[in-house]
Structures are given as structure tokens and as C-alpha cells.
Design brief:
Helix content: 10-25%
CATH class of the largest domain: Alpha Beta
CATH superfamily of the largest domain: Class I glutamine amidotransferase (GATase) domain
Strand content: 25-35%
Largest sheet: 10 strands, mixed
Radius of gyration: 20 Å
Order of helices and strands: EEEHEEEEHEHEHHEEHEHEHEHEEEEEH
Shape: globular
Structural class: alpha/beta
Distance between the termini: 63 Å
């Protein structure tokens, strides 16, 4: 079937449609990862976005339950150069085309993704519509222009769990084949309360790997309710949208600072920056991929990291007397990590649970474990 991508600036791309024969809309972003299309599709941080993948062929190793970061895909649509009709991997449980159709995700293929990515790099991310039914491009462009902008949009409460639950790493649905999961040591269990702003499955696995019992709570849970659970630590998850409207979480973080160890990732990092009195801003085309060089200012080492964010914390807005800036992106000098100098609180912008490069970024989960143990003493 034929499919069209219409961008808000009037640029049109025509190709073939796969997945669900329908129409979708959202902010169009690109991801430079070579693999991991299923993890990208099921990452709740992509809610409200259409994702362009730069690797030429997508779908060739199929899909399987273990690679899901959430129960279903959260991307609005997918754009690729070539979409594979077959799965050629022993782990595959379902062809990617069928998987996308099952979850009503439209896929646009057979377009020049290099031209599209260059257009987004030059002009910045923009709103767009993929349609397999409407052929009037003027209508589609106008629909794109009518899409609500990501700026000022709180999507965390949209994707968050609606009720409290205990993460069970023994459940087959939560297994990843990691021999260290769960309970690989005799260390005593520590209780972590994790705020779900769009949390990824592998983050929960990594917390469990550090001998943590994890209680997941909705995004709007108050600090008093969380502290009433008597946690050894609080985790602030990744998530979609603009961090500034998530003011309820900022208030909760401020209330918990100094009362319990806190660790944040991605949106959790941005909310931590806001709670510390800082500001956030939107990047031109965001960071999306598994190949971003980040320097650890504490060790001087460069880590190749996985990113998925459109917003960043302004380092100049952070009080250097109270907060250490621990990580920086070497591509554009974006702030990628911070740590409070006197309180048990730290955060990173990138995704250490993904660990795409030749380094052990899981050390941050070990650091969180150590911080909680020190706090208990």
C-alpha cells in the first residue's frame, strides 16, 4: 500500500506502507541506533513521536517478548529505508510487520531516510503525519500544523502506571536471559520506590540485579505517600514530553531531597535539575541513538552511551556551590549528569541500563546501591 509523510513545513515524502494501514501524527525525530528497533518502539519516552531509523534495513531479526521495554509500542509511527518482510533470527517470535500491525503502528518505508534526517538536522524536529488513506497533501500538511507541540506538554501522567505494583523479576515476562537476574548475591534486599514517568523494563531489571525490591508508583504520587512506604531509595524514571509542566514531580523531589537517596535517569534527570532550581530547554533535534560520547568528569573516561531525549538541563542554571556536574556530551557539551555535593542525590541524562558501548555504565546502579547502604548506616 502507498503511504505519505507530510511535515508541517510542507515537505512531502512518498513511500510504501507497512504495519497498520491507518494514519498517525506526532513529532518526527530520528534515531541513529544500528539495532534495537523493538526496544525503541516500546520505550514510553517516544510517546507522541514518529521515529525515523537511520539504519538502512529494519525488521530483519523480528520481535520477541524479552526485548520489550513496555507491554506495547509507544511510538506513534515508524519510518525506515527498507522494511524486512521476514525474520531471520532464532529468537524471533513474530515478524516485525505483523507486530506493528498488531499494535496499530503505521510504518512508512522505501523513502530516502538520509534526505529526511538531513532535513530534520537542518531545520530541527517538526510535527508530521503519516497516512495510508489521505492523498491530499495540503490536507495532511495542515493536520501536521494542527498537532499540539511537545513544548509545554506533560506526557508523563499519560504513560504512567495508574496503580502501584511490585516488579517481579521472577515473572517470565520480565526475564531477559541475564544469568545474574534475579537475586544473584546474598546481599540484603533494599526497598526502592520507582516513579513511573514512562519507565523502561530494563531499568527495573537493573535495580533488581542490585538486590533491590522495587515498588513502582504513578507519576503523580506525593512525596508523603512515597516516604510512607519507608524506601531505602527513590528512583526517578525516564519519560516523554516537556519536563517543565511536570511540576507535581518537581515538588515531590524537593520534598524528598535529603530525606532519602535519589537517583534519576533521563526525564528523572531533568526533573532533578528543575528541583535544584535549574532550567531546562529544548534541543534542536534531540539526542536519539546508541553512539553518543559522554565524558565522565570524575574519571576523565569517555563512555559511549544510549540517548533518547529532546530536552536538557541548562548547566549555567545549576548552583555550582551545591551541585557537581559529573557528565558532559562531547558532541554538543550538553549536561549529561549531576550529583549533589552534600545530599544523597544524583542523576544522568543518558540511559545506563542500555550499555551500548565498550564500558560498564551499569556502575551507576551499583553507585545507587552503595549510596543507599551508606545512608542506612
Amino acid at each position: 500500500m502507498q503511504a505519505i509523510l507530510a511535515l508541517e513545513d510542507g515537505r512531502i515524502f512518498r513511500g510504501l506502507g507497512y504495519g497498520a494501514p491507518s494514519e498517525c501524527q506526532g513529532e518526527v525525530v530520528f534515531n541513529t541506533s544500528l539495532t534495537g528497533y523493538q526496544e525503541i518502539a516500546t520505550d514510553p519516552s517516544y510517546a507522541g513521536q514518529i521515529v525515523v531509523l537511520t539504519n538502512p534495513q529494519i525488521g530483519n531479526y523480528g520481535t520477541n517478548q524479552a526485548d520489550n521495554e513496555a507491554a506495547r509500542p509507544f511510538i506513534e509511527g515508524l519510518i525506515v529505508r527498507e522494511f524486512s518482510h521476514v525474520s531471520s533470527n532464532w529468537r524471533s517470535e513474530q515478524v516485525t510487520d505483523e507486530y506493528m500491525e498488531r499494535y496499530s503502528v503505521p510504518v512508512l518505508a522505501e523513502i530516502d531516510t538520509r534526505a529526511l534526517v538531513r532535513h530534520l538536522r537542518t531545520n530541527g524536529v517538526m510535527r508530521g503525519v503519516i497516512s495510508t488513506s489521505e492523498t491530499n497533501t495540503d490536507v495532511l500538511v495542515q493536520r501536521a500544523r494542527n498537532i499540539r507541540k511537545m513544548d509545554g506538554t506533560d506526557l508523563a501522567r499519560v504513560v504512567s502506571t495508574k496503580s502501584i505494583y511490585q516488579f517481579d523479576a521472577n515473572d517470565n515476562r520480565n526475564q531477559s536471559g541475564d544469568p545474574l537476574l534475579p537475586g544473584s548475591t546474598d546481599r540484603p534486599l533494599l526497598h526502592v520506590v520507582a516513579y513511573d514517568f514512562g519507565i523502561k523494563q530494563n531499568i527495573l531489571r537493573m535495580l533488581t540485579r542490585e538486590s533491590c525490591r522495587v515498588t513502582v508508583v504513578p507519576a503523580e504520587t506525593s512525596a508523603e505517600d512515597v516516604l510512607g512506604m519507608k524506601p531505602d531509595g527513590v528512583f526517578l524514571s525516564n519519560g516523554p514530553g516537556d519536563p517543565e509542566p511536570v511540576d507535581y514531580a518537581v515538588r515531590a523531589i524537593r520534598s524528598m531531597m535529603g530525606r532519602v537517596p535519589i537517583f534519576g535517569i533521563c526525564l528523572g534527570h531533568q526533573l532533578t535539575g528543575l528541583a535544584l532550581g535549574g532550567r531546562t530547554y529544548k534541543l534542536k533535534f534531540g539526542h536519539h541513538g546508541g553512539n553518543h560520547p559522554v565524558q565522565n568528569n570524575r574519571t576523565g573516561k569517555v563512555e559511549i552511551t544510549a540517548h533518547n531525549h529532546n530536552f536538557a538541563v541548562d548547566p549555567d542554571s545549576i548552583n555550582a556551590n551545591d551541585v557537581e556536574l559529573t557528565h558532559v556530551d562531547l558532541n554538543d557539551q550538553t549536561l549529561e549528569g549531576l550529583r549533589h555535593k552534600s545530599l544523597p542525590l544524583f542523576s544522568v541524562q543518558y540511559h545506563p541500563e542500555a550499555a551500548p558501548g565498550p564500558h560498564d555504565s551499569h556502575y551507576l546502579f551499583r553507585d545507587f546501591r552503595q549510596m543507599m547502604e551508606d545512608w542506612k548506616r
